Amino acid sequence: MTLYIKDATFIDWQGLTFKKTDIEVDQGIDGGINLVDVIDLKPGDRSRVLDAKGKFVTKSFGCGHHHIYSTLARGMPAPAKTPENFVEILKYIWWNLDKNLDLDMIKASALAAALFCAKNGVTFVIDHHASPFAVEGSLSIIKQAFDFIGISHLLCYEISDRGGEKIRDAGLCETENFLKAGNQGHVGLHASFTVEDDLLEKAVKLAGKYNTGIHVHVAEDLADQDHCVKNYKKRVVQRFSDAGVLDLSGSILGHCIHLDEDEKKTLKDSGVWVVENVESNLNNNVGLTDYSAHGSNIMLGTDGMHSDMLRSAKSAFFVGQGTEGISFPEIYQRFRNIHRFIKENRYRGDSDNNLVVLDYNTPTQMSQDNFLGHFLFGIESSHVDSVISSGRLIVENRKLITANEEDILSFAKEMGNKLWKKL
Ligand SMILES: [Zn+2]
Questions:
Q1: Each residue of 238-254: pLDDT tens digit?
Q2: In a domain, 199, yes or no
Q3: N or C of the chain: less Cβ packing under 10 Å?
Q4: Could you tell me the distance, in angstroms and rounded to a whole number, from the CA of residue 5 to the centre of ligand 1?
């Protein structure tokens, strides 16, 4: 069954050209699209035709750094102690939450996160997962939930020494089993300050074996650098560079806030990817940085705060005014760079047949010349009308159609209450 979109105004996401057209959408993970003058359906043809009259159609969005494990945190009880710095935020909030997750809670978190991604037009998610007392099977559960909703993914488990040898080895084992089964994914590490040399070496070796990269937090807070200099007599980027992290194609370094000029140059020369998550940085009060010296491989994420990449782009633009005087085209590029990351590293699930239909009621005219002004000051996730992921219609008229939205949210609430009781 072919999917057609009728009477669309198609915006080419790269050239930003506008074209009134019908669109034939291929099915499947490597599918494309054809812009056609007419939809020629023979009698009895069961093809689906989506009416997009007055609406805009463009490439859907991707999230470069998510934490689905934090989905049930919204509205949770306050921590036992008010954290006074970043390490205490981890200790009293996030590590308390992730240690209490079980496999059912992970399933609920992944389903709800995938639901929100879908409704926000985000069809590809790069996730960094932690659940130290429910490691085994966690990646498969997230994968199944994402596949069920229809969101493409690049997953990993954030392995760490923070919980001791047994949990560390469970993380390595879960990662290898997931990759061995033929799933695309990263080898995840938490951050330099919770990863000892032995684990770092094993992780790099494992990533090399499965031809993928490392996904890790880097210098999110100054504490990460201080720990590294004290324990390893070098800075974090140097440590990861010496270990071979930057040589692995597909490696992603999250945050990279507290880097010196040498470290920025190392990243730039290596071509490794950096993910910017400014809302999270503001929330944790860890500082902000000018990313313009980190090279051109910068993409945007949410750091698990939400699943709305249009919101992340706007936040990065407003913060970028103060930190680096970022321009409209530069922020749009960062928002769209995830497509280049996926393509260059031959991951799958982001072909041309990933589309978003925007019902955008603008008070002013929009064209190729001023699209970026609308992108930053007008278009929001509330305008996402329909979403197509790998040729499959997953959201129609603002409603998820691959699964029952109410069922997912009530299951998530039930699991959220169960989790909060344990905190
Ligand atoms: Zn993160």
A1: 999 999 999 999 999 99
A2: yes
A3: N
A4: 37
